[in-house]
Amino acid sequence: MPRVAALDPATYVRHRTHLGDRVWAETNCYTDVVIELLHGLGHEPLAAMPFALTIGWDVDQWTFFKFPQADVEQLFGLGFHELAPWRPLVAHIEDNVAAGRPVLVELDSFFLPDTAGTAYRLAHVKSTVAINEIDVAGRRLGYFHNQGYHTLGGEDFDDVFQTKGLVHDRMLPPYIEFVRAVPGAVALAGRARLEASLALLQTHLRRLPPENPFHPFKVAFQRDQEWLLAAEGDTFHAYAFATLRQLGAGYELGGSYLEWLTEQGVDGLTEPRAALAGITTGAKALQFQLARAMARKRPLDLAPLDGLAARWDAAMGALVRDFG
Question: Which of 34, 180, 227, 262 is found 20 to 30 A from 274 (Cα to Cα)?
């Protein structure tokens, strides 16, 4: 059976960002799966995490943050490349995995048993997985998804890959990437990895939003309340995901990166770590308050956003001063 790494869901230990008492258990499907993919391949994804500090308000959402491919290549010697499908999807996956290349592909969570209780056999939701092993004849798949490593088989295999035919003739091919070692590149470790990560931090600090992103977010949030309070419950989940979850989870990952730097012996991070922790918990509190406000059809007091804005100034000011 073609596979990249010898992994077993029964013994697989998730990355630290998906363990313990996290405020935001999940971030977004792409970042979560890349964290676990890098971890499963023996790398430390936190070394490539300074990009999480650069998120901001993007017109009508907080940045849907992803690992920059150049950072992953520099630290781990891995390149992500789009796969153009011209054969059945399982054939592409089988050949790439056999060549030692994990495949990232958008699949329907309706057929992913690890989403039991939320989407599995309940809702059609597009989500990215990273495939580590596949047995087409045995109808079995090993894949990273959300917070861990999982397997599926049998009818789920047939359905998720539509091996018995398309559900309808308007189905479009999913977005697919394969991951391969970059020729001549090496995975960094120890002091070399730390120095490269600090250089990336310096680079990303030059890419911070030109203004405090909480200020335009507050204006937009205040405007959006006019229609949010009249919307259905499903609207809350979509809005919260694009706004409060992305900002809260993003800054929590940024805080985890600073924690990792501290463990590597880097000093002077107490102030920004505390400020980012305040943003992380503050965003979670606002999400609960928004849910109650929509249920009661009463406007939400957005004054707490001013406090989060002050914490952003404190965190980024300290980081730019000491590392920029």
Answer: 34
Domain shared by 176 and 271, yes or no: no
Q: Same structural domain for residues 168 and 294?
A: no
Which domain range does residue 167 map to? 16-42+78-181
Overall domain count for the chain: 2
Is the pLDDT at 32 greater than 90? The verdict is yes
CA distance 226 to 242: 18
pLDDT tens across 189-201, in order?
999 999 999 999 9
- Domain boundary (160, 181, 202) is at 181
155 and 213 in a common domain: no
Asked whether residue 52 is domain-assigned, the answer is no
Q: Are residues 173 and 232 in the same domain?
A: no
Are the C-beta atoms of residues 51 and 204 closer than 8 Å to each other? yes
Residue 130, pLDDT > 60, answer yes
Confidence of residue 262 (pLDDT cuts 50, 70, 90): very high
